[in-house]
């Protein structure tokens, strides 16, 4: 399944005084996966686009922290 949230396992030193974080996550922007902007993309209404930060729906990605759950009210 495709997701913009990626994860990796960093190096853990045996001499690290803190408990290690075994898996770290990061989020990539959706525009990195579109090679070119196709014509006639669906758009948000202008007042909604200002709130979301983009005019085109395929480029919108609400950020969720790693411990947050997605809610149904976000259109996802």
UniProtKB/TrEMBL annotation:
InterPro entries: Spore_coat_CotJA
Name of the protein described by the UniProt record: Protein CotJA
Organism: Saccharococcus caldoxylosilyticus
């Amino acid at each position: 399944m495709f997701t913009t949230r990626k994860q990796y396992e960093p190096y853990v030193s045996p001499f690290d005084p803190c408990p290690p974080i075994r898996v770290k996550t990061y989020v990539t922007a959706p525009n990195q996966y579109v090679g070119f902007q196709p014509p006639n993309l669906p758009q948000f209404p202008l007042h909604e686009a200002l709130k979301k930060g983009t005019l085109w729906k395929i480029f919108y990605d609400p950020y969720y922290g790693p411990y947050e759950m997605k809610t149904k009210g976000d259109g996802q």
